[in-house]
Each structure stands twice: as structure tokens, then as C-alpha cells.
């Protein structure tokens, strides 16, 4: 029972219970106070007090009463409020940034793109990112408040130390990205807003998990195919980041012995066979054999990941999905061939519903996730 967890102060216990209530409603919206008390192992009076606070603060909203046919007061369903508290999500790409303003439930309310010069130092990116964040935040209404900023970064991220450890395509090493952005936002309307950051594929996976929650999609594996290839895995509502934040660097799994040389120096990596040079520079699907070949190797990669993690759902995302069936058909065919040979069902596969916003929306989801993830008991 959450109310009886030991360790920590009463304030910490209350925060855990508040966040657990929010996350329960994210997964199962429309539950009543009685439903929540039963699901979370809390007393009805505790849930009522927490719900009142969360309603007053803008996290929750009450909606129409459900007719049950019973005598007496009918239970009132509670939902995450999509109107008052908002999130900013930003994709830091290679030479561009994309920023979105979303509700707590993932509706995109505003967005903006901007470019920066990759030949300059990281401060050039920070300046453009700051301007874009402020421009999108200005779309916030008077009765609305931004409570978190999420960042999807193109490389390994030390989340605890808020460092971008390595961005291979930008040659950035050990950058205190969080501190740099906070300094840039000082004396602006976004000063003091909580900032969170993670690898771009990881946040994209969180966006699919947090903003389209389903028990039928757990574990959820997202594979992001752009200039590079990365993956994010969400299990039981928690993001798997690894001991150093480098989990999901699947672009450097070797798929072909003595294959084409990769940017990392090895041969036959997934990135060299599927990513930018192999696929995205073929033009508007003019080189159909190259797209089909990349689709085959993507299917091999997905098969390997499915064998390792047994996901309930695999989501494909990133610029490569614009090739449509020219890419997806050989992916499915390869997965079907492997499944048929093993006498197993093929993994469930779909394309992200967020299209070009997948990383920015996922970054907003990261902010919501970190703000509402119950702290582990001491």
C-alpha cells in the first residue's frame, strides 16, 4: 500500500501518493475517487484530499457524472486536465531545433522550427533554442502555465549530471547542456521552469508510452531512423536508460560482417546500412533498390531487438518513415520470414502517430514523466 511506505518524510510520502494518483489517471482516465483508493491502496479520505489539491492546482478536472443506477451519490470521474498546465518539448537536431507546446495529455498546441550553424560552438544552438522556446511559450494563454521543459538530444545523455556526453554527428563532448540553457533563460518568462533532458530516441519512446498509454503496448520499443539509428525501451511505465544513459545505441549493432564502414569506424553497423548515408540521401525514393535493401536490414535489426526484449509493440519513427511502403514492406516481409522460420508470431509493428513532431512531443512527455514519476521509497 502506498500510504504505508516506510522511509522519508511525510512530505515525501504525500508527493509519492500525489504522483501515483496522477499516473494512475494517465493510464486509466475517468476513475472515481473510490476507484483510485482501491487501485492505489490509499484511504478514501486521503484520495479525496489529494484530488482536491490537484484539481485546485490545475492537474485534474472533473467531468460528467456517470449514471450507475445505484441510489445515493454517483461517483464523479477524474481526468488529467488538458487545458491549464502545459509542457514545452524541444528536439535538438543536427542543424535545426523543433519546439512544441503541449497539454499534459499530449495535444500539440503550438510549434516552431529554426536552424542553427553546426560549424559554430554549441552556444549558437543554445541561442536559437532559447529564442524558439520563448516564441512558442508566448502562445500560452493567461490562465495557462508552463510547468516543465523537456529536451531530446542527439547523443548519449547523463541525465543525473545533465550533460550531453557525446553527440557524434555534431562532435560535441561533455556539454553541461542543462546549465547552459538555464543561463540563457535567466531573466526570461521561462526562468525557473524545470528542465529535463534525454537522448532523442528515448524521449520519442516516452511520447508513445505517456501520450498513448495502453497495457497492450508494454514493453514498448521505439526505433528512430534518421541520420543515425537509435532505440528507446519503456517497460512497466519506466524508461530503460542503462547504467550510463547509453542504452538504445542500436545504430552500432553490427548487422553485416565486413559491411560498409560506419561513422564510428567499424564496418557493417546498422547506421551504415539503414541510416543517413544508406537511406536518407537516396532522394525521393529514386533509388528503390537502396530503400528496399535498407528496409531488409531494418527488419533484421528489429528481429534482433524483438528477440532480445520481446516487446508487445514496436514503433518506427523518424524521417525514414516518409518512404512509406517502399521501406515498410521489406521490413514486414523480413520480420514475417524470421517469425515463420521459428514458428512464432511476428512482432506487432506500427509507425509513430506524431510524424515530424515525434522527438519534440516525446521531449514534452519526458518533462511530464519526470514531474509525475513517484519517487522510490528510501
From TrEMBL:
PROSITE patterns assigned to the protein according to its UniProt record, in alphabetical order: HTH_CROC1 (PS50943), ROK (PS01125)
Pfam families from the UniProt entry: HTH_24, ROK
Domain HTH cro/C1-type: from-to ranges: 22-50
Protein origin, superkingdom: Bacteria
Family matches, as InterPro entries: ATPase_NBD (IPR043129), Cro/C1-type_HTH (IPR001387), ROK (IPR000600), ROK_cs (IPR049874), WH-like_DNA-bd_sf (IPR036388), WH_DNA-bd_sf (IPR036390)
Family according to the record: Belongs to the ROK (NagC/XylR) family.
Stated name of the protein: ROK family transcriptional regulator
Originating organism: Pelomonas caseinilytica
Amino acid at each position: 500500500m502506498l500510504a504505508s511506505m516506510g522511509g522519508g518524510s511525510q512530505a515525501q510520502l504525500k508527493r509519492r501518493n500525489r504522483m501515483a494518483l496522477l499516473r494512475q489517471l494517465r493510464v486509466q482516465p475517468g476513475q472515481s475517487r473510490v476507484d483510485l483508493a482501491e487501485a492505489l491502496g490509499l484511504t478514501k479520505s486521503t484520495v479525496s484530499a489529494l484530488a482536491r489539491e490537484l484539481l485546485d492546482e490545475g492537474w485534474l478536472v472533473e467531468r460528467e457524472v456517470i449514471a450507475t443506477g445505484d441510489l445515493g451519490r454517483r461517483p464523479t470521474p477524474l481526468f488529467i486536465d488538458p487545458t491549464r498546465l502545459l509542457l514545452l518539448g524541444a528536439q535538438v537536431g543536427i542543424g535545426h531545433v523543433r519546439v512544441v507546446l503541449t497539454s499534459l495529455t499530449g495535444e500539440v498546441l503550438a510549434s516552431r522550427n529554426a536552424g542553427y550553424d553546426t560549424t559554430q560552438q554549441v552556444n549558437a544552438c543554445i541561442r536559437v533554442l532559447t529564442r524558439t522556446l520563448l516564441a512558442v511559450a508566448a502562445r500560452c494563454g493567461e490562465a495557462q502555465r508552463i510547468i516543465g521543459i523537456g529536451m531530446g538530444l542527439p547523443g548519449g545523455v547523463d541525465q543525473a549530471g545533465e550533460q550531453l556526453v557525446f553527440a557524434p554527428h555534431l562532435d560535441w563532448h561533455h556539454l553541461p547542456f542543462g546549465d547552459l540553457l538555464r543561463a540563457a533563460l535567466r531573466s526570461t518568462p521561462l526562468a525557473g521552469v524545470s528542465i529535463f533532458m534525454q537522448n532523442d530516441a528515448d524521449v520519442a519512446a516516452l511520447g508513445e508510452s505517456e501520450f498513448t498509454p495502453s497495457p497492450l503496448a508494454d514493453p514498448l520499443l521505439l526505433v528512430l531512423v534518421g541520420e543515425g539509428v537509435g532505440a528507446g525501451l519503456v517497460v512497466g511505465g519506466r524508461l530503460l536508460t542503462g547504467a550510463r544513459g547509453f542504452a538504445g545505441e542500436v545504430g552500432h549493432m553490427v548487422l553485416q560482417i565486413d559491411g560498409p564502414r560506419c561513422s564510428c569506424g567499424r564496418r557493417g553497423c546498422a547506421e551504415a546500412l539503414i541510416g543517413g548515408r544508406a537511406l536518407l540521401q537516396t532522394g525521393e525514393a529514386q533509388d528503390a533498390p537502396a530503400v528496399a535493401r535498407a528496409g531488409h536490414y531494418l527488419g533484421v535489426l528489429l528481429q534482433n531487438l524483438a528477440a532480445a526484449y520481446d516487446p508487445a509493440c514496436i514503433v518506427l519513427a523518424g524521417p525514414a518513415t516518409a518512404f512509406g511502403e517502399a521501406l515498410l514492406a521489406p521490413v514486414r516481409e523480413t520480420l514475417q520470414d524470421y517469425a515463420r522460420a521459428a514458428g512464432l508470431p511476428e512482432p506487432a509493428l506500427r509507425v509513430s502517430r506524431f510524424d515530424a513532431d515525434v522527438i519534440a512531443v516525446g521531449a514534452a512527455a519526458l518533462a511530464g514523466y519526470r514531474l509525475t514519476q513517484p519517487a522510490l521509497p528510501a
